[in-house]
């Protein structure tokens, strides 16, 4: 055809004018309706485009029909029949030329021979033309003749209409997860549990048309909001639809007081409790379906669904994200439990459904915005692989593959051999073959022949490179998971179905992290750089690229998790410090606040009992009940010698002013009013009640014991100390001075203007003196004898076996004694050193509670001295025996006071009476404290009909509601020191107790000391201000980086960490009490803590038993640093038995952790726990190795990794294999799937340092009390014998065995794919 001339079929009219030929083209033919399309009775073919041009007979032109163009007469009642390739989505291939067979029918212009392409549009039009009724002569309108079938928009799920079905599915998923957390104790329980799970799954299959992928963005359970219910998203945009119904709705179901189900929703216009919820019928019908399937009643179903709720989200104002654009905020409860907030997709503004007048500025919108900005929100945790470890929330179907079998802290010999195989493969270029397991590690399903094994290529990385692997796997039809080798046999840690790391390489990286503070990012960067530099020279056949940093970080975290899961109990205790019953005599505590940010924290699971405080109980244990008076006296009870004229700190309160005035009265005596001695006493004694009309008397208003007045006035010269108090009072503001009575102010001014009343030097002899023979001579003990000079105190020094009386200190000592602020009277013969001991004793008596004189409740020392002083007749030999008594020498403060006063006690009966009264006052005050506690308990604890106190049992405490509060006496009776065991605790709390063993869930790691009591909750009610500590330790304020750990350790030469508690805020003085009470079956004798003075005060008003029978001391490091107001009674050097104790052991252990603070501050909470606990475990192993080397006769020469592997890894593995082999010989057949014992596990007893038994596990296959619960993780170990299912046994460390050859007996002969690491040359697939 000539170019430029249209085909003849298209030309309707040809006109020649002025030698110009004009062709008029038929519109129908041009647009496809006239070429190759037959007509029926002159009509248009159905579906042909409209005739856009209409002929105008008047002129030679064509006008455009507007109605036809705009579609006014376009009939869309019958659609055009589309080509087959449009309906079947089978698009024909187009050639590169201008003519295309697929488009040849469109006008025929592309087909030069005039033939239509078979199957093109022409055939479709022929079919359509032939289908038109030939007898119908009516003109059809152009366009679509009928509506098409269309398609469903989106998923096609109408959430509002399918609300009941969706809620059934959500309940089934939550019920199955709750049942999966339960552990059957016998075969009947296991069968019942399996039946219930199968029924729930069958109910879910009834609604299989609604897939989980569809519901992922349309409905969620309210488990993370702490309720049983669901969130429904009905539409994507807008707050309401055209019927004023909410686009998003949260529905909650709960039980009423009569156990009937109630339903409340988030819709603000509905008063659900009063009028009933509009969604009640839908929700209850769904709940009835679940109860019918499980055979349970509604309360039972709701109770089971409530076990896995996030209880911390029940607080008002807590916002939880559901998907990227929905947030549920907890409200005040009742008819409106939640407020649903949605995010506008375009600008990201959060809009609240519940607040119509201010949807973008209400508190709910701000809470949603804050939750959205939290990088560790609940919404972001779903994408984190490590989140599922130990959490029990695995997805229903997951292709994520990683190792689950525990690993030893130091790789075994088999793991090292596997690492060597990988290194050799990198040299030879071979491919490592990882065979598929014969059984599914998740559900135990055994693969049969009809489940094919397929392989894919992967990578195994080691320190200097990576090699290719062929990973064999199969798909489990029961649990719908990939079954890939765990890597334990090959010494690998699987991170995915494609990637693995050698165990030895991860051991190197993690040890370098916790010992040298080298972060994982720095390790990865250096390794990548060195690999790129040395690959061609060292391992030229390794892969060129390494896997990503996130995968390497996940591998390291997974390895740490697996190591901690199988850690022997010997690593978490101390063989040197442990007593015969497994308890510790001394424990040291310390906090380390360098951890994660507060906003990244998630609440931990704990079992606690709220205890009501015993207000003002701590002052009942003081000889000076008014702490302001004790503080004022303590400011002058010092051996300081520098510038006594200088006033102390300024007085700022009326309480402090009264305290200084009463302290001045103690030292300076009474005032005279109308010829009578008085101090203007108030009406009520201070120790009995805090009266508003208080006076200024030391005994009545200051709570000073009468014996102390005589003690200070008859043994000390108080002129300098009284003058310092007077100057401090006069420096107070005038407003405070105006509140002091005039007569008392006159006394203050008189004391200040009297000058130094203690000026002058002592005479060579004392007033009463003593015999020069040190009290050993004859004669009556009470007969006055010739005065003795101070230099003759050396004789007394030999009698009491203490050099302090013989050491006068020369000229410097005499000057120091003469310049002291508080000195004994001239009749009390003392040297400078002995006088300081007497002042230290006086300060401890005034400031600290009397329980410090009876460590662990033992009043033997005080009793021995009392008996010697009150003996009739008095005997010097008896007093000498008391001074030499072991209990008296243990309390160095008491011993020092008695030694100082020994010359005077032997010769002056009045001094004996004064000291005796003070010691008896201690005993009386201790009884007063106990009576006060008993009286408070009698007033608070309920009584029965007969008037007897009804003490709550531990079972009643376990079943009590969350807000129930108990008296400390009830707690002590329910959880006595003797008889509290893990078995009794778990029997009372059930599965809640088992969760406490998971350190990721509870935030506490102490495997050797499982919980034996509920945690005493001291935050229930604010205590009295009089019970607050005096010393300041910068505690109680949570700042940006207060997240950290609180560690407990032993006190030997090489201390070990026995427990780690993750802080959720600032450190508190209650934490040592909580740890000891919760985890120690037998309390230690003493604990060391840097804030022990405040810890003791808290125990006095919170747990009296702990205060009476547990001694608390400050460690030496902090005692010298920041303890001002407590006395030397809190100093460990004041007790003889503490000389060899390492009181700063926890400080030493935390010093290593502080090196990690640079990257620990910014990691997530669970990663922080893994890093911290792993570091402490490694430090414990190194300390154990040092103990083994220091042991007498030790032959240990290996470094700690090899020593640990020989004693706790390979020996244990060989012992396991020997037991398995003997069992196989007895049965006559092989045991299928014998579990690896690699990792330090044994079947018998724990052995530390070559044979020291640390404890014995429960026999007969029972689970041990130290068993770690890891929710959601696959079963760590199975022992299969005689073809039966395995019974999981708890294993511990250290049983001695020999040999490694029998490891090969674990091969499964039935496994078609093999069970050993094989290598095959596959160079052609290395690139894959």
Describe this structure in words.
The protein has 1328 residues and is an alpha+beta fold. Strands 13, 14, 15, 16, 17, 18 and 34 form a seven-stranded mixed sheet that branches. A six-stranded mixed sheet has the order 26-29-28-19-30-31, sandwiched between helices. The chain is globular. The two termini are 55 Å apart. This is HMG domain-containing protein. It comes from Porphyra umbilicalis (Purple laver).
As a whole number of angstroms, the C-alpha radius of gyration is 44 Å
| Major sheet size, sense and barrel closure | 7 strands, mixed
The average pLDDT value, as a whole number, equals 75
Shape: globular
The percent range for strand residues is: 5-15%
- What is the CA–CA distance across the termini? 55 Å
Structural class: alpha+beta
Number of strands: 34
Helix content: 25-40%
Helical segment count: 42
Q: Runs with pLDDT <50, length 5+?
A: 33-60, 71-148, 375-399, 641-645, 763-789, 1020-1024, 1218-1328
Offer a quick outline of the entry.
By secondary structure, this protein is an alpha+beta fold. The chain has 42 helices and 34 strands. Strands 13, 14, 15, 16, 17, 18 and 34 form a 7-stranded mixed β-sheet that branches.
List the helices and strands and how they pair.
Blueprint: E1 11-17, E2 20-25, H1 27-30, E3 53-56, E4 61-64, H2 66-70, H3 84-88, H4 121-131, H5 163-180, H6 187-205, H7 212-215, E5 219-221, E6 229-233, E7 248-255, E8 261-265, H8 272-275, H9 280-294, H10 298-305, E9 319-322, E10 326-333, E11 336-343, E12 350-352, H11 363-373, H12 413-428, E13 431-434, E14 454-462, E15 465-475, E16 482-484, E17 492-494, E18 499-502, H13 503-516, H14 520-538, H15 549-565, E19 586-592, E20 608-611, H16 627-634, H17 654-668, E21 671-673, E22 676-678, H18 706-715, E23 716-717, H19 719-730, H20 734-737, H21 742-753, H22 793-800, H23 810-818, E24 823-824, H24 832-847, H25 860-869, H26 876-884, H27 886-890, H28 892-907, H29 909-940, H30 954-959, E25 965-966, H31 968-974, H32 982-989, H33 991-995, H34 999-1002, E26 1004-1005, E27 1015-1017, E28 1045-1049, E29 1057-1062, H35 1071-1079, E30 1086-1088, H36 1092-1102, H37 1104-1109, E31 1111-1113, H38 1116-1122, H39 1145-1154, H40 1157-1160, H41 1165-1190, H42 1200-1227, E32 1245-1248, E33 1252-1256, E34 1318-1320
Parallel strand pairs: 13-15, 14-18, 19-30, 20-25, 20-27, 30-31
Antiparallel strand pairs: 1-2, 3-4, 5-6, 6-7, 7-8, 9-10, 10-11, 11-12, 13-34, 14-15, 15-16, 17-18, 19-28, 21-22, 23-24, 26-29, 28-29, 32-33
